[in-house]
Specification:
six-stranded parallel beta sheet, alpha/beta, Leucine-rich repeat, LRR (right-handed beta-alpha superhelix), 14% helix
Length: 378
C-alpha cells in the first residue's frame, strides 16, 4: 500500500470541454461549475484502486484504466467506502463493476466513456449520482435501480443503449418517482402526480416543448431543468418552493409564469439572460412575494407584470398510507402495498411515497408492518 502526493490530471478533459463548449458565451460568470482540470491530493493505492480518506470514510478516487472489471470493496482498513469520486473510472476498460451497499454517492463523470461496461447495479445505499456519470457508456444496456428515489444530476445516462431504450418506451423517462429525462418530450407537458422530483437538466435544450405544468408533489426546480428551452412559453410551477441556478436560462419566449406564494428562493441566475416580458401570477400575497430571496435587479423579474391570487388554496399533503391515492387510508391500501411488494405490475400502486412509513425513501416489508399497525390504531 502506497501513499503519494501527485497532480491528478483527468483523461476526461475533452468531455468536460465539449460540454462547456455547448454553453453560450454570455453565460454569467460562476453560473456553471465543473471539476478542476488539475487537482492536487493525497491518495493511497490498493490493488487497482486509488482512494482517499476523510472523516473516517473512504472515497475511491481513481482506478487502473486497463482493468477488465472492478469489484469495489465495502471497506478499506476498516473504514466504509461511501463514495466513488469524480472521474474515478472515466474512460476505463471495465466491462463490469460491483458497487457495494456502502456507497452513497457517485461523482461527476465517474464512469463516462467506459465503452465496455454492459450493466450496472446501483446499491440500496445510493443517494446521489453526479453529472453525466455514465454518459457515453456505449455498451450499457442494463441498469438495476434500488426501490427508492435517488438524487440525480444532469444527463446521468446520456448516450447509452439503456437510455435509448427508455426513450423509445416513453418521452418522459421516470425511475422510482424521479423524472430523469425529457429530451423527446414535445408540445404541452403535464407531469403526473406520481412524479416526485425532476432531475437537473431534464429538458435542457429541448426546443419542442411549449408549456409545462408541475404537480403539487414537486417542490424544487433544480438547476438547468429548462435551460435553453427556446420555445417554452408557459410554466405552471405553482407548488415549487425553490428555483435553482439556470433553471429557465435563455428561455426567451417565456411569457406566462405561475409561482407559489410559498416560494422561498430564486437563485440569482434562475432566469439568466431571459429577454421576454412575462405575466407572472403569484398564488399568494404581495407580502409573500417580497419575502422571496431573489435578485431584485434581475431583468426578467423586474420587467414582468404581476398578479397576486390570495384565494388559491394548495391541496393537502399526501395522506400517509394512501398508496392507491383515493384520498383515504384503509385496508385497500394494504392490499395494494402487499401486491406491489410481491412484484405484481397491476398492484394499483399510484403513490409509493405515501407508503414510505419509515421515511427512508424505499418501500419494503417493514413499511407494510407499519401500515398495519397504523390501521389498527385508527
Amino acid at each position: 500500500m502506497k501513499t503519494k502526493r501527485v497532480a491528478l490530471k483527468t483523461a476526461s478533459v475533452i468531455a468536460a470541454a465539449a460540454l462547456l463548449a455547448a454553453v453560450p458565451v454570455s453565460m454569467p460568470k460562476g453560473a456553471f461549475t465543473s471539476a478542476p482540470m488539475t487537482a492536487y491530493a493525497d491518495y493511497q493505492s490498493l490493488g487497482d484502486f486509488y482512494y482517499s480518506e476523510e472523516n473516517g470514510e473512504i472515497t475511491i478516487t481513481g482506478s487502473n484504466p486497463k482493468a477488465a472489471s472492478a469489484e469495489i470493496p465495502a471497506t478499506i482498513n476498516g473504514k466504509p467506502v461511501t463514495a466513488i469520486g469524480d472521474y474515478a473510472f472515466n474512460g476505463s476498460s471495465i466491462s463490469s463493476v460491483t458497487i457495494p451497499d456502502s456507497v452513497r454517492t457517485i461523482g461527476n463523470y465517474t464512469f463516462t466513456m467506459c465503452s465496455n461496461l454492459k450493466s450496472v447495479t446501483l446499491p440500496e445505499s445510493i443517494e446521489y449520482i453526479g453529472i453525466r456519470a455514465f454518459e457515453l457508456c456505449s455498451s450499457l444496456s442494463e441498469v438495476n435501480f434500488p426501490d427508492h428515489m435517488i438524487d440525480y444530476s444532469a444527463r446521468v445516462f446520456d448516450s447509452t443503449p439503456w437510455m435509448t431504450a427508455q426513450r423509445q418506451k416513453s418521452d418522459l423517462v421516470v425511475v422510482n418517482g424521479v423524472l430523469i429525462d425529457g429530451e423527446n418530450a414535445k408540445g404541452d407537458i403535464v407531469l403526473s402526480s406520481d412524479i416526485k422530483a425532476v432531475a437537473s437538466g431534464t429538458f435542457e435544450r429541448n426546443d419542442k416543448i411549449t408549456s409545462v405544468v408541475f404537480p403539487s408533489s414537486i417542490k424544487k426546480l433544480k438547476d438547468n431543468v429548462f435551460f435553453y428551452c427556446s420555445n417554452l412559453t408557459s410554466a405552471d410551477i405553482r407548488y415549487v418552493t425553490e428555483i435553482e441556478s439556470m433553471a429557465f436560462a435563455y428561455c426567451n419566449k417565456l411569457t406566462d409564469l405561475k409561482l407559489s406564494g410559498k416560494l422561498t428562493k430564486i437563485d440569482g441566475y434562475g432566469f439568466a439572460d431571459v429577454t421576454s416580458r412575462a405575466s407572472i401570477t403569484v398564488y399568494g400575497s404581495k407580502s409573500d412575494w417580497d419575502k422571496v430571496e431573489k435578485n431584485e435587479n434581475d431583468p426578467f423579474l423586474r420587467n414582468a407584470s404581476y398578479t397576486f391570487d390570495e384565494s388559491f388554496v394548495e391541496p393537502e399533503d399526501d395522506i400517509e398510507g394512501d398508496v392507491n391515492a383515493d384520498g383515504k387510508f384503509n385496508t385497500s391500501d394494504l392490499v395494494v402495498m402487499n401486491q406491489w411488494l410481491v412484484g405484481n405490475p397491476d398492484s394499483g400502486m399510484k403513490n409509493w411515497k405515501a407508503g414510505d412509513m419509515d421515511t427512508n425513501n424505499k418501500l419494503d416489508g417493514f413499511d407494510l408492518c407499519l401500515m398495519r399497525t397504523a390501521l389498527l390504531s385508527k
